[in-house]
Design brief:
The chain has one domain. The protein is built from five helices and no strands. It has helices at about 5-25, 25-30, 35-60, 70-80, 85-120. α3 packs across α5 (about 85-120). The longest helix is centred in the last third of the chain and has 35 residues, at about 85-120. The protein is elongated and about 60 Å long. The chain starts with a helix and ends with a helix. It is a multi-pass membrane protein.
Length: about 120
């Protein structure tokens, strides 16, 4: 399992690469309806990567902001989506909400498994 330092590094590198590619191909992403939806999905991946980066940064520095990291990551992803097309903002928000729900559900399952292991020993 990757530690917070390496996960933070990988998420920042992927964020930079995906944002650069999105900006390079924003004309193509804004050309059709399907590509516009794809642009929103790509922006929601930016949200996921930035949220991972901020969460690992908070874990390594000992600072906890709660929902602050989510709001910052969502704002940055929506700004990145707005550079492609207006509809990308809406689809990015919807895809990000689904991703956040799934991350929360996965985190709860992982936490409950780790708690059950510590209660046995």
């Amino acid at each position: 399992m990757a530690g917070p330092g390496s996960s933070m590094l990988y998420s920042s590198l992927l964020f930079t690469v995906i944002l650069s590619l999105q900006e390079m191909y924003r004309g193509k992403l804004a050309s059709t309806e399907l590509f516009t939806i794809l642009g929103g999905f790509i922006s929601s991946l930016l949200f996921l990567l930035l949220l991972t980066f901020l969460g690992n940064f908070q874990e390594s520095s000992g600072i906890k902001t709660g929902w602050g990291a989510v709001i910052i990551a969502e704002a940055v992803a929506l700004i990145a989506a707005s550079t492609v097309h207006r509809v990308c903002i809406t689809t990015c928000f919807l895809f990000s909400a689904v991703l956040l729900y799934e991350i929360n559900k996965l985190s709860g399952m992982t936490l409950s498994k780790s708690e059950s292991k510590t209660k046995r020993h």
